[in-house]
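Field: sequence (string)
Field: structure_tokens (string)

Example rows 1 and 2, in order.
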Amino acid sequence: MTTLSLTVQERGAGEPAPSGEGGQPGRSMTVAVIGELDIATVPRFAVRMGELARTRDLRVMVMDLSSLTFIDAGGVRALVELRSRLEEQHAELVLDGVPPQMGRLLRIIGPARRFRVR
């Protein structure tokens, strides 16, 4: 059975930014992705990320992928679409804790150049 869990931690405009998030004014949030991001879980992921992307004054969304166990092409596409949506709102998507297999996949298919990875 494919499972996916998301944990969200928000930081308001007046709170100090965690290291690596820069000093941009506005809100930031960290979303921990746990489990598999694939054909079975992408629809739920996309809906939840759409809700979070509408956060007022959002400037940075950090996607913690250190507990991601699997990602398929649909999962990569969902991340690309999320990044595009955030860019339209003048916000940034940062990928953190990218598993080695996913890093290789991003380099092979090309969208890695457009992601900020730390």
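Row 2 begins here:
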Amino acid sequence: MSRLKKVSLIVVGTIAHSSIWVAGAQDVSGYESGPGALQVFDGDGMAATPLWVQVWIAIMLASFAAGLLFVWKQPIARWAVGGFIAPFVVGGPIYGALGWPFLSGAIALNHLIFWSPALFLLLTRRPFLSANHSTAFRIWSGVITFVIVFSFIFDVRDAVIYLGHVLP
């Protein structure tokens, strides 16, 4: 196993387990581990994920983490980083209160809900095109815009599948 794959398994597995822990003691025993919308995305689910997706997840995590460099001066960075952190804080309890299982589709739904404000600001203000910002921020804002848009391509599908499963 390559070093990149080991690192990505550790990082994403930790985040996935944290998400499930935050979600509370929901019964996901009827679901198998995996990356699909109706599967539990735990360490085993990450291991079953294709390598290119694992690399993408590592890029996504690094992109959001890089936003920490700008949160003190750039409101858009605060929205992006906050949107990344919020699902860990409020997403799990909400799913628990609704009695919904915390599956991969729930993660996709969280992305759509919590990342959309940052994406709206990034697309309407376009800091990646503005000479009023530092080069580093312009590069980061362009990268994070791409990361969110690309992620949404998959998240929309998975969130729809998940909602079709949990809504009566």
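free_text_note (row 2): Residues 3-166 form one domain.
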